[in-house]
């Protein structure tokens, strides 16, 4: 039976003892309980960015989430042309001091992470649907400098927002699908070759998805899966089936899904403005909404689709608890070590004319069984706020472990590599 046991008090006590040599004797021990990684938790973060929605997020290989853009309304409209870094282990946020040509269309962009760089495409600015963009921007995280990625040929997608962007490492290209200009809901699929910097429109064929925005795509092998999305009205797709694009044959087809039980709630209904991440062979669908603009409902369930069997289930069946800050227009990433992290979004629609946004950061471990002892130790040390960078380096003798736990050491290592 595949269950996920909780971290026991004994394990926490053992880790506390392991850390006793790190804690300065003059500093009192923290009385804050550490929530097990295997349970959804709202993280007590530091330097937390302001509430926002419509931002984008990517994750690197060192447990850092990068968030760009977003929107907030408090009687005045605010947009955020800024890059924020969140260190997953320590729970610390930092504003990245970027230079260069930062993207100005900061809402409903799409973004990918490739080899210590962030690439964004599209987006919109205030007034939404009027100031749309079809630019590609790239940020070199080693130098923290943004620049335009100019196509080498005139063919390119129309300005839009709410599209998806997916990196294909095998073909070294980006797949951009759908989106809207505020009036037209596109269903076009484009391929951007990162070697030649050229866009190519893929012929749709006879069978293809309807136009949509605020959907999600994930790439599994040579299959580009599309989940949800739609227009502001009713959704196009109930997710008892899905659209998949073969990136080699360049053809679309529909694929039926099933559930792991007789519970119809294990299959998501039509949904948009959600987030999707893939970890190993599972796709996790988090948050989102459905319904008309002035009668929206927020999805409170985290769904999982096991791609080898095409079966849906819910995360509560995995005993990981409930997502604590349900939202839409939020962001979600999963680290290489299997920690799912959500940030921000619209979380209160009780007043349709004054929707409330959050800056909550939540996380949960998605791996099978208990996290590794190394992960537990690193998580505990980073969360304790009492260990010092110098002490960890002295006792472990490892720059890699120290940089993994402390973002300042990580940044120093990255800047040293860039020099």
Descriptive account of the structure:
A hairpin with a 4-residue loop joins strand 17 and strand 18. Mean pLDDT is 84; it is low at 1-19 and 21-31. The protein has helices spanning 9-19, 373-384, 389-396, 399-405, 407-418, and strands at 41-42, 56-59, 64-68, 71-73, 77-79, 83-87, 92-96, 99-100, 110-113, 117-121, 124-125, 131-132, 136-140, 145-148, 164-168, 173-180, 185-193, 198-202, 216-220, 223-227, 241-246, 251-256, 258-259, 275-279, 282-286, 289-290, 297-298, 303-306, 311-314, 331-334, 339-343, 346-348, 356-357, 361-365. The chain has a 5-stranded mixed β-sheet, with no helix packed on it. Helix 1 (9-19) packs across helix 2 (373-384) and helix 4 (399-405) packs across helix 5. The protein contains 5 helices and 34 strands. By secondary structure, the chain is mostly beta strands.
> What overall form do the CA principal axes indicate?
globular
- How would you state the average pLDDT, rounded? 84
Class inferred from helices and paired strands: mainly beta
Approximate helicity band: 10-25%
Name the strands of the widest sheet in spatial order: 8-14-13-10-9
What order do the helices and strands come in, and which of them pair?
Layout (H helix, E strand, L loop, with lengths): L8 H11 L21 E2 L13 E4 L4 E5 L2 E3 L3 E3 L3 E5 L4 E5 L2 E2 L9 E4 L3 E5 L2 E2 L5 E2 L3 E5 L4 E4 L15 E5 L4 E8 L4 E9 L4 E5 L13 E5 L2 E5 L13 E6 L4 E6 L1 E2 L15 E5 L2 E5 L2 E2 L6 E2 L4 E4 L4 E4 L16 E4 L4 E5 L2 E3 L7 E2 L3 E5 L7 H12 L4 H8 L2 H7 L1 H12 L1
């Amino acid at each position: 039976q595949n269950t996920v046991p909780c971290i026991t008090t004994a394990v926490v006590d053992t880790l506390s003892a392991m850390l006793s040599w790190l804690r300065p004797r003059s500093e009192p021990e923290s009385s804050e309980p550490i929530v097990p990684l295997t349970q959804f938790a709202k993280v007590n973060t530091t330097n937390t960015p302001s509430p926002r929605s419509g931002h984008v997020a990517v994750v690197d290989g060192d447990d850092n989430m990068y968030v760009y853009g977003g929107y907030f309304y408090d009687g005045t409209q605010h947009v955020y042309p800024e890059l924020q870094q969140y260190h997953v282990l320590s729970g610390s946020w930092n504003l990245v001091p970027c230079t260069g040509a930062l993207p100005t269309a900061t809402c409903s962009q799409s973004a990918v992470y490739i080899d210590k760089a962030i690439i964004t495409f599209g987006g919109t600015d205030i007034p939404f649907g009027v100031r749309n963009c079809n630019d590609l921007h790239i940020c070199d995280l080693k130098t923290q400098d943004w620049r335009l990625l100019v196509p080498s040929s005139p063919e390119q997608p129309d300005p839009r927002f709410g599209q998806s962007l997916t990196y294909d490492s095998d073909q070294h290209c980006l797949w951009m699908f759908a989106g809207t200009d505020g009036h037209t809901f596109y269903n076009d699929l484009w391929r951007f070759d990162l070697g030649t910097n050229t866009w190519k429109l893929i012929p749709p064929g006879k069978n293809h998805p309807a136009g949509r925005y605020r959907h999600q795509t994930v790439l599994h092998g040579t299959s580009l899966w599309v989940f949800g999305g739609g227009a502001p009205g009713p959704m196009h797709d109930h997710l008892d089936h899905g659209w998949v694009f073969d990136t080699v044959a360049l053809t679309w087809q529909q694929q039926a899904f099933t559930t792991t039980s007789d519970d119809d709630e294990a299959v998501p209904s039509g949904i948009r403005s959600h987030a999707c991440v893939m970890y190993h062979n599972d796709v996790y669908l988090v948050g989102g909404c459905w319904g008309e603009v002035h009668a929206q409902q927020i999805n409170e369930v985290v769904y999982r689709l096991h791609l080898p069997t095409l079966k849906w289930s819910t995360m509560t069946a995995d005993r990981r608890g409930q997502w604590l800050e349900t939202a839409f227009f939020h962001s979600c990433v999963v680290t290489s070590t299997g920690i799912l992290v959500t940030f921000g979004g619209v979380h209160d629609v009780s007043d349709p004319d004054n929707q409330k946004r959050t800056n909550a950061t939540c996380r949960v471990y998605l791996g099978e069984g208990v996290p590794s002892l190394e992960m537990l130790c690193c998580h505990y040390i980073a969360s304790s706020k009492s260990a010092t960078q110098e002490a960890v380096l002295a006792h472990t003798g490892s720059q890699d472990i120290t940089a993994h736990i402390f973002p300042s050491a990580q940044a120093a290592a990255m800047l040293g590599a860039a020099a």
